[in-house]
Amino acid sequence: MADAAVPPPAKPGEGEGVDRRGALILSLGWAGFIGATAASLAGTVRFLFPNVTFEPPQQFKVGFPSSFSRGVSERYKSEYGVWVCRNDDGIYCLISVCTHLGCTPNWLAGEDKFKCPCHGSGFYSSGVNFEGPAPRPLERAAIKIDDDGQLLVDKNHKFLYEAGQWDDPASFVTFTG
Ligand code: FES
User: Fold this and answer.
1) 90 C-beta neighbours (distance < 10 Å), count
2) How many whole angstroms from 31 Cα to the centroid of ligand 1?
3) pLDDT in tens, 49-88
4) Whole-structure pTM value
5) Collapsing DSSP states into helix, strand and coil, what is residue 12?
6) Termini Cα distance of the chain
7) Are 122 and 132 in contact (CB under 8 A)?
8) Whose Cα sits closest to atom 4 in ligand 1?
9) Which residue's CA is the nearest one to ligand 1's atom 1?
10) pLDDT tens for residues 19-42?
11) What are the φ/ψ torsions at residue 129 (nearest 5 degrees)?
């Protein structure tokens, strides 16, 4: 009598489809595993190198006082976000951030004023606001003559007109040369 627990021997070609299907499932599994591992590794590497934005330095030199003629210089606006201004008394540095919502105003030399393109605020060359929604004047940055005779601006230290800080000697450089 034949043993019922022992399967009959496979005929040639029988079961190959099942083997191929198994191999396909196995390789898909491995592909998924490798993909997940690679994604996880990429996430780890991304974490090690965070997306840092580099700000320009807050303290910088802008040259010698004699290199500025009377009026507003836009030389350092794009690089440092300031205007260096000279009047009959000396030199001061305005920060090019609108005091309404923070846009960057433009200096309109022909109209002798700063004009904000966002909502139309206007500021005199002194920085005082006179039109539009800006609630207060532009801010000034600390400025002094450094040891080498060049002007040193420090945006870490700001001076507000409405707080009476524009009278602070650290907010301007007396220069009549
Ligand atoms: S941000 Fe300058 S007027 Fe609004």
Assistant:
1) 15
2) 54
3) 667 767 789 999 999 999 999 999 999 999 999 999 999 9
4) 0.72
5) coil
6) 123
7) yes
8) 119
9) 101
10) 777 777 788 888 888 878 887 777
11) -80, 145
